[in-house]
Structure formats: C-alpha cells, structure tokens
Write a structure and sequence with these properties.
Layout lengths: L1 H7 L5 H14 L64 H4 L10 H12 L6 E2 L5 E6 L5 E7 L3 E9 L3 E9 L5 E4 L8 E2 L11 E24 L26
Antiparallel strand pairs: 1-8, 2-8, 3-8, 4-7, 4-8, 5-6, 5-8
Length: 252
C-alpha cells in the first residue's frame, strides 16, 4: 500500500508538461471557427466605386442680349403675320434714364429724357410737337389722342415742372380699358418704366396726364418702335414723324 501511494504522488515531469502544451498549440489552428456572416470573408478589402457623375446639361439660348433689345423678332418663330416686337424687359429700357435728373423746365427735360431712351432702343419720336399743359391734384385730366397700331410699340415720356410731386400718365383704349400706366410716384413718369407697351389691335387710344400730388405745368412726348413687317401703304402712305436737322436742341 505504501509503495502505491508513493508512486501516485510523484509530480509530472516539466518536460512532459511542455510537450503537451506544444501539441495543443499546434492542434489549435485546425479548430478555428469559420467567420460569422457579418464579419466578412478573409481576402482583399472591398473598394466601393463612386457613382457615375450626372451629365452636365448646357442651356443654349438664342435670345437677344441687352445690346439688341428692342430689335427682337418676337413673331419670327410663329405666325409670320404677327408683328415684330421687343421681347426683352429691363436692360437698356431702364438703364437709359438711370442718371436723369429734372431741371425744372418740363419741355427741355422731356426732350432730353426721350433722347436718352428713344434712339438707343430703336425708337422714333411720334409726337409732331411736345404735349404741354397744366394739371393739379384733384383737377381735370389732360388728354391727347394716340392712333395706336397693333404692330408697333410705344413709350410715353412726361416731366412735370416745379410744384408737381407725382405726375401720372395712363393710356386707355377707345373702350376706356387701361392699356398701360407708369405705376410710379415721381414727377417724370415713363409709360412703361421697364419696356414699351404694344397694343394687340389698331385702336384710337388716349394718353391721359394728371397730377396725383401737387400742381404745375408738364410736357410729354410719345415715341414709337415700328415693325418692319408693315408697309407704309398699309398706313395710308403716312410714316411716323422722324427727327431731322431741324430738331437739334442746342440749348439742352
């Protein structure tokens, strides 16, 4: 009995323990678990490519620039019988009077204003003489006939003298309907401020001038931009008034 107990109590030699550990270490790689689905499979990293760029769409415009505003051919792409009218708003129609200031002399001021904005935009003076009169707030309206043509565009320039704070200009059809108005609150209205107005039919229109605030004298002129598609014979052989050397304003 004592010899058996002595044999069991002997410790395992260190060399044996090291050998067993080495065998377990060599066998461990064979027992490695497969990677889980969300861990991905071994291999080179996946490179995600960027989405293809969107095509760049370049807008092509054949419209007129500021340099040729007022010469646009609005009816060229449609009905050949339609008038050729301005197609741009603003630009030189507004820029022309950017530095204008009144001097207190309505007749000279309106001529200077119309010469700044008329020729630059291809317009000619239609009024054979300057429209002049006196208006007062709450007083009578001064009217001037205008034979409007459907294939032409018009602009009315008006300047009030000292004492007029808000001069109003409106153009009405023969039926009393409003065709155009200035919509501003100053002493030198332009109808229209940002472009000419173009009647849809021939009509005996009326230019109405009144004072919303103040009282005093005023002067006005009507200018026209004609379509080249209407011959003089259609107008009874009468062309609109054209400026010549007698219209020089040396005192302006």
């Amino acid at each position: 009995m004592s010899s058996r107990r002595a044999s069991l109590s002997h410790p395992i030699p260190r060399a044996a323990r090291l050998g067993a550990a080495l065998l377990l270490g060599l066998a461990a790689p064979g027992c490695r678990e497969e990677p889980r689905p969300w861990e991905g499979k071994p291999g080179p990293p996946v490179v995600l490519s960027a989405a293809p760029p969107r095509p760049v769409i370049t807008a092509v415009s054949d419209g007129p620039t500021d340099a040729d505003a007022g010469q646009g051919d609005a009816g060229a792409s449609g009905d050949p019988d339609l008038p050729v009218l301005p197609v741009r708003v603003g630009g030189p129609w507004v820029r022309c009077y950017g530095n204008f200031k009144i001097s207190g002399e309505p007749a000279k001021d309106v001529t200077r204003l119309s010469l700044l904005c008329g020729p630059e935009n291809g317009m000619r003076r239609l009024s054979t003489k300057t429209i002049e009169g006196h208006v007062a707030e709450g007083g009578a309206i001064v009217s001037e006939p205008l034979q409007a043509l459907r294939d032409a565009c018009y602009r009315v320039f008006a300047v009030g003298g000292p004492g007029i704070l808000n001069l109003d200009v409106a153009v009405r059809s023969s039926r009393g309907a409003m065709i155009a108005s200035d919509g501003t609150e100053d002493a030198w209205p332009i109808v229209q401020p940002d472009r000419p107005f173009c009647p849809l039919e021939d009509d005996d229109a009326t230019v109405e001038i009144s004072a919303r605030r103040g009282a005093g004298r005023f002067a006005a002129e009507v200018w026209v931009l004609r379509s080249y598609k209407r011959s003089a014979s259609e107008d009874g052989g009468v062309d609109p008034y054209e400026m010549d050397e007698t219209d020089a304003y040396g005192e302006l």
